[in-house]
Amino acid sequence: MSNLQLEIKQMIIETLDLEDISPDEIIDDEPLFVDGLGLDSIDALEIGLALQKRYGIKLKADSEDTREHFSSINALATLIESQRAS
Amino acid sequence: MNLLPLTGWLNAAPRGVIAYAADSSVSKSDLESRVAFWMRALPAEEGQRWAVYHKDSVEFLSIIFALWQLGCTACVPGDNRPATCERLRQRVQGFVGDFPVNLVSNDDLSELGIDAGFDAVPEWRVLNADFPALEIYTSGSTGEPKAIGKTFAQLDSELAALEVLWPGEHDAVVISTATHQHFYGLMFRLLWPLVRGQHFETEQWQYTEDVYSRALRYSAFTLVSTPSHLGRINTSVAWAEVADRCISVLSSAAPLQRKDSLSVARLLKAPVREIYGSSETGAIAWRVQSDCSDGGWQAIPGVMLSQTDDSLLIVAAKQLAEPFFEMSDRINFIADGRFHLLERVDRVVKVEGKRVSLTEVEQVVQQSPLIEIAKALVITRKRTEIALVAELTEAGRQELAQLGKRKLLLQLRQPLQDFFELVLLPRRWRFVDQMPYNPQGKLPMDSLQAMFEQEEVKWPELVSQTVEGQVAELVSRMPADLIYFDGHFAGNPILPGIAQIHWAEYYGRQLLSLKGRFDRLEVVKFQQVIFPESVISLTLNYNPESDKLSFRYHSDKGVHSSGRICFR
């Protein structure tokens, strides 16, 4: 598990106040919402804010695009890396 | 300005644009054509009830207008979950829109050879004011959802009252994060704009970033939203660019926290108007919070408020089905007929603005063969959420032992999704051998609450960490609720040195290869204090030869502390 993926999982657990789950139980390419981790629309808002706060990520104003970035830990890591690079 | 009547809107409304989709505008004749299409497509007969669920506000509107033209009542559920559909099946003739299979949907229609081409617009009929236009649903205290009918007269009367209260601002385009499937959204982002000739957007937006980019398109806009979104508005968006175009912000579904109300008012430079009401009564009161007070709620024009002996709010208004309605909220009248909202008296609660009966949650959870008995409650941690305390059956205990708690929870959660929206699912579960009844045979709420109290915060909140060889670099935020700030010092909290040394050792052991036992400290210096909420970097450097760990806490203010921990 790379540092960034681990970091994102820790961020999600802390930000969303999740319990009964540790970072290694979150699968990198598993869906975060509904199935998989079972997060809801409020969690999506919270993750959006946390990304902004910690990584300075600005969500593009396009829900379709955002949904894609939020689909899994790997997708979030790609989003963070791409914004770091640019 | 006089509002157009809903009963004769199709005849009375002027031609021209009525709404905006993502990249196009929708005219009245576009809408009329869709109404004609749905009238032809729906096998509906006078006097029937049909369930309607559609994401697109204009399509939704076309369907309900078509049903009205056919003499049918539009039944509007808050969601399209399987359990909702199953329940509706008893009440309605059919389903139209985005419903699960086996029901009439867009796709079925195309299979039937009914295309969505241009439809000749028929002569529109004008409906009677006492026609049952809508049926909506809300959680009842028994656990059974209850159906609430609305006649055109009721709808028109509520809309007229809103127009008296806030008559202007017709040029502002309505942008919304609320769904029209709920009564608040239906009235404020769809029907009210429609009858006053105000343009509205057909889409519901999830993120505040979306709201910003939509706002850039219009010279004036109004935001119809809820505390869930307004409380989580992204402040780093360049709101200043659209603030001049924001005419007002509306919020309902639950009271907005004052800090959120003030923050949104500052960002958008517009009044944040909150509406209090219910599916049964519609909008009945409003407030605008200010720096010095929450203002108190005051009645919307035409609404008379009083209270019962035990402080329950009583509403009288033309928009009600009966002369009076008793709310389940206790209130406290302050000056000038204004009031403060106190607690609800039944087991119906609101989570993220959505109403749910705790009794219903328990009933559904108890359907699982793994659960003997369940008690649902509302707790507030980082957010307000449903929590559950349960006694497992023998089978449940075996599953817990075999699968572990996480897998068992996934299994228990699955069937609940058929019944409840995701935000209403229990987020925290406690399994007990026996419910904590007191000697009087009562189940005290505070002993259930106590099971969900937050553990003490003993660690900084990690922002990032990197490890290279024997050097680790951690960036973390110091949460204000760290136990170490408590009493150190009263009114002026700073992070104690001992906590800093303890963390350095802990992370050193976690991230670097040190194994030895703590021996002593060397050259420890505390140069600058560390305050709550500050972001601090910790650099750890381990020297395996000397078995010493150097630590340095630093930030943009310089070095806070440094030193060496020696092991042996």
Topology:
The complex is a heterodimer of chains A (86) and B (568).
Chain A: H1 3-16, H2 41-55, H3 63-69, H4 73-85
Helix pairs in contact in A: 1-2, 1-4
Chain B: H1 9-12, E1 17-20, E2 25-27, H2 28-41, E3 49-53, H3 57-69, E4 73-76, H4 82-89, E5 94-97, H5 106-111, E6 132-139, E7 145-151, H6 152-165, E8 173-176, H7 183-196, E9 200-204, H8 208-215, E10 221-225, H9 227-230, H10 240-243, E11 246-251, H11 258-268, E12 272-278, E13 282-287, E14 298-299, E15 304-307, E16 312-316, E17 324-333, E18 339-344, E19 348-351, E20 354-357, H12 358-366, E21 371-380, E22 384-392, H13 394-403, H14 405-416, E23 428-431, H15 445-450, E24 461-468, E25 471-477, H16 497-511, E26 518-526, E27 535-543, E28 548-555, E29 558-567
Parallel strand pairs in B: 1-9, 3-4, 3-5, 4-6, 8-9, 8-10, 10-11, 11-12, 22-23
Antiparallel strand pairs in B: 1-2, 6-7, 12-13, 13-14, 15-16, 16-17, 17-18, 19-20, 21-22, 24-25, 25-27, 26-29, 27-28, 28-29
Helix pairs in contact in B: 2-3, 6-7, 13-14
